[in-house]
Amino acid sequence: MMPAWIGCRGRDGLAASSAELAASAELIASAELGAAVARAQKGDEDAFRHLYRTVQPGLLRYLRGLVGDDAEDVASEAWSQIARDLGTFHGDGQGFRGWAATIGRNRALDHLRYQRRRPVAASLSVDGLTDRASLDDTAGSALELVSTDEAIAIIAALPRDQAEAVLLRVVMGLDVATSARVLGKRAGAVRTAAHRGLRRLAEQFAEGSAERPPASTGEPHIQAAKPRAAVDPPPAPDLAEGACDVEA
User: Fold this and answer.
1) For the structural domain made of 18-230, what CATH number should be given?
2) Which of 12, 42, 71, 215 is 20 to 30 A from 36 (CA-CA)?
3) Quick check: 81 and 247 in contact, CB under 8 A?
């Protein structure tokens, strides 16, 4: 006989079950990543390649939102430092993602300061994306779009605090606490910025165009990325070559 609780769960019960499964899968993935970190710290190159293959796609999209077409160069510098300083890291899989994001962000900000670039608005059309977003499913709409370079460029055109919050939470897959540590902000501020950014994206998509804000003369705006053709990620850097000339 079917247990009574199964028939009583209904739609809310199924939604809760899906959320529980997703949370369990995330915990398992974090544990596996943490185990790989421990092996890599002992010199296991296969484990380090696993770290790279797991973290690099999200890190690259995050950096593309910060520095546009220079993301691959910045990511390469970040991974050189990650390999060099891996022995100093302490934490789990989620912590490693945050640590990698912090290093990538620091390298990106150094790059932008060095280049002294002015804000550049990407000329993008979202005509083909308007039927995929609605104001009553803000987060879902943005989540479906962040896998494309066009979406990364649109996110990059948001106010800086909102753009980074969305990139870290949605693209890098970091939780609120880890994202807050990366940005040096309170968790509540990051949660609010991410919500506002996702709402703004959904409104733009629903209107049929993503208008770029005018260049600001104040705090530098995140550089919008140009659409890029999909390419395979470069091979993982050699763990033995981690001690290269990369400034902290």
Assistant:
1) 1.10.1740.10
2) 71
3) no
